[in-house]
Design brief:
About 40% of the residues lie in helices and about 15% in strands. With about 500 residues, the protein is of the alpha+beta class. A hairpin with a 6-residue loop joins strand 13 and strand 14. The longest helix is centred in the middle third of the chain and has 25 residues.
Length: about 500
């Protein structure tokens, strides 16, 4: 059989080598950074559009980091801070582990000793990959649904066959890539290089002629390749001498693996909440504390209105810009600035009775998640009142269920809600004929106000009560049945109104 695709692997090797040689002639590779940048440029040309490549470290949600070389990541899930118009691979990124397909430890030249321990540069690279894979193992697992369909699991007599496909579809692929390699004095072959153990690299490319690949020892059946390294089938990677084709075969292996992988999405909701918490709960030395005697320290909940929108925007942008895009970022930053002014105004109305310590962290995070999605002043004001009353110890305002309800209000809903509940007397239950409500609300607030009454019923703020009564119709005492339909506020509706009603003079 001839060479596949007219010797595609060999041609790819020669193309990459020629490209690196051309870059080397221009920039020299005396420094490791220059070689990493050059390899980024080469990989960016080779990889399909959905895969991005950058220099940097992997990072978990908690902030743990590992690695310092090349990362192949999912461009659809993680837009890096680098400009996509004119890529600058000199910038090092911090890529979430959830978005990483592969980590590549780069070496311009590796000297191969008799053992791994005597190959210092290679040994260090292996440990760097090991650390990156160990960190990536902490991300949420995405099980391979076809894992048990492999031959070794189908019949007992096949249990010596390798599990070519790994148990997880989002295991990080670890690579060591050296452009050149040479045997050290006294070393003549790579057989003494034992690369294995927990989180070992899955692929090692050493120059044009030498590969280390994951394999499975099958006794009399020989050796079979495996997709990822597994110490269960073979304790070490197997050295492969492939003259002139190592780089091409290695890159094809990389493409094959990452095209098979299936990463889980990044939980950007959690990232946004954490970004808000970091900005909002972190005290700012540049802002003077509120006067003694209590009150809501808005530097611990939201940046006060004394901060200019530009200052607020700069702080929040650090958490958002690389995550959700400029347009959404600007929108939520603007919302945050407006709501913060409303909060400050409400604090002035409530006086010294507010204290941010009364606000549970979970409540605060949910409040920020929902409140900053609102860009209508009527709804923003209700969210501001809710937060301030919660800080004043109001139990109705501290009910997290109200946050979801408010997020579904329209400005008209807010107007009708205030109109209806302002007529209710505290401690009493009022039943108003539905037709009377229909007629009055349309007359006072417009024809579309009835739609808001229906929406408030759907949200559980109001309920319809239908009663059947008997009444005499004439002097003979004849009775007939009739029905009455009334509207009445629910307990949830009364609770929300108490939480967002305007502050009376006694509270100011």
């Amino acid at each position: 059989m001839g060479k596949a695709y007219d010797d595609f692997a060999g041609k790819l090797s020669r193309k990459v080598t020629a490209r690196l040689s051309m870059i080397e002639a221009q920039y020299n590779f005396d420094l490791g950074d220059e070689y990493e940048v050059a390899l980024c440029e080469v990989l960016a040309d080779i990889l399909p559009a959905r895969y991005g490549v950058c220099r940097g470290s992997l990072v978990t949600f908690e902030g743990e980091q590992a690695g310092d070389d090349l990362i192949i990541y999912d461009r659809m899930a993680f837009p890096t801070l680098r400009s996509s118009i004119s890529p600058n691979f000199a910038i090092k990124e911090k890529v979430p582990v959830e978005a990483a397909f592969a980590y590549i430890e780069c070496k311009h030249r590796v000297e191969i000793g008799a053992t791994l321990q005597k190959s210092a540069a290679l040994a260090k690279a292996v440990e760097q990959v090991r650390a990156a894979k160990a960190l990536a193992a902490k991300r949420r697992s995405n099980p391979n649904p076809n894992y048990k369909e492999q031959q070794r699991f189908q019949r007992p007599k096949w249990d010596h066959l390798p599990a070519y496909l790994p148990e997880l579809k989002n295991e990080l692929f670890g690579v060591v890539f050296a452009r050149q390699s040479a045997f050290a004095k006294g070393a003549t072959k790579a057989g003494g290089i034992q690369i294995g153990g927990d989180f070992a690299p899955d692929l090692v490319i050493l120059g044009d002629d030498l590969l280390f690949t994951p394999s499975a020892l099958l006794d009399a059946d020989g050796i079979k390749a495996s997709l990822f390294y597994s110490s269960f089938f073979f304790p070490y990677l197997r050295d492969e001498h492939v003259e002139g084709a190592a780089i091409g075969l290695g890159l094809l292996t990389l493409l094959h693996v990452i095209s098979w992988m299936d990463l889980l999405p990044i939980d950007y909701g959690q990232v946004l909440n954490a970004g808000f918490a970091d900005v909002i709960f972190k005290p700012r030395a540049s802002i003077s504390a509120l006067p003694p005697g209590g009150g809501l320290d808005v530097t611990g909940i939201v940046a006060p209105a004394r901060l200019s929108p530009a200052t607020i925007s700069a702080a929040l942008s650090e958490s958002w810009t690389a995550l959700i895009g400029d347009r959404a970022t600007a929108w939520r930053i603007d919302n945050a600035a407006t709501i913060q002014k409303a909060v400050s105004a409400e604090i002035g109305a409530f006086g010294p009775n507010v204290d941010h310590v009364r606000i549970p962290e979970r409540y605060a995070l949910v409040w920020f998640e929902e409140a900053t999605k609102q860009d209508e002043p009527e709804i923003q004001q209700l969210f501001a009142r809710l937060l301030v009353r919660a800080a004043a110890g109001d139990q109705d305002a501290a009910d997290r269920r109200h946050l979801e309800t408010l997020s579904r209000f329209t400005p008209k809903d807010a107007e009708v809600f205030e109109w209806y509940f302002a007529q209710e007397r505290p401690g009493t239950t009022k039943y108003t004929p539905e037709h009377d409500v229909w007629k009055t609300v349309r007359a006072e607030l417009g024809d579309d106000a009835w739609l808001s009454i229906e929406h408030l019923m759907a949200l559980g703020m109001l309920e319809r009560r239908v009663d059947t009564v008997a009444r005499e119709t004439d002097f003979r005492g004849k009775e007939e049945l009739s029905t009455t339909t009334d509207l009445t506020p629910t307990e949830s509706g009364m609770s929300l109104y108490r939480a967002v009603r305007p502050a009376p003079p006694t509270e100011g």
